[in-house]
Here is the input.
Amino acid sequence: MAQADLVNFPAAADPKEVGYRIARRFIAGKHMLHAGKWISYPETFYWTGAINYAHLTGDVELMQAMKGRFSKLTASEPQLLPIKNHVDLNMFGSLPLRLYQLTKDKSYLDLGLPYADTQWELPDNVSQAEKDWAQKGYSWQTRLWIDDMYMITIVQTAAFKATGESKYLDRAAKEMVLYLDKLQRPNGLFYHAPDVPYYWGRGNGWMAAGMTELLHMLPEDHADRPRILKGYRRMMKSLKQQQRKSGMWNQLIDEADCWAETSGSAMFAYAIISGVKQGWLGAKQYGPVARRAWLALANYVDDQGAVSEICVGTNKKNDKQYYYDRPRHSGDYHGQAAYMWCVNALLEGKE
Here is the structure.
């Protein structure tokens, strides 16, 4: 069996059971806000992951809880809906767009689609640099931080899936090629930013997951697919080499004495699991990498579904020690979300 490494896990690492704990933790979880004002991107992605888990497993109770929480947000907490002026805020649209896909309730489409559209609609009060990006056909929110390649990709691909309009997919692909050309290093990894020459785990994880999401959507004959697939495989080859004996990846990927970090490791595992399942990666080479990663990751989930050893939110800084010293939290939504991606990737295609 080509994907034998991705099935038959021991009970402690059973994806459905691990996913059950993590997804249900979200039901009673507090909001994780961006700048103390709006629903954050970690909460958005955790929420969507729980919805996808409920859909994959037929968990009606969980799905109703997710929809109920969203109804409360729009009816009672509308001030928490993100504004549409930043790459870390526009990504919110991916959540209602996913709900629209599953329910065909047009109110979700009407809420979500403007978040995708305004990434390419130049507002009045923009800088010259933002105008320059827009004139070249890119999002005015372009800033060449590797995080962007999930934030932009996820809402644009969600808009494509919801509407079938190819412009959304073409936008995301064009943007991804730009970031690959500008930021990918010869070893296949990515600096946190052009002026921060360190291979930060979760930053690279956003890039890995963004390419994965896009490759799921791009037709075989799409003009940008070969370039994106090349960048993806180049990164996966490097990640295979950098994986620790434990199965994890470190906070700074290439630093052997740095600590194992769960959110980035889960993002890498998600990208590799998907690659093996989709045939983008050789199962013989990469199946064992994915299995080792998931078995290791499962050890960091407690009985209440909280993931430990998650690096807190981290801005770029040209200081290696800064990354070593970042606090580690349990239950932080950055890691909770990434674990749900792994769970769902492992469950997809199963009865």
User: Anything to note?
Assistant: The domain at 4-347 is CATH 1.50.10.10 (Glycosyltransferase).
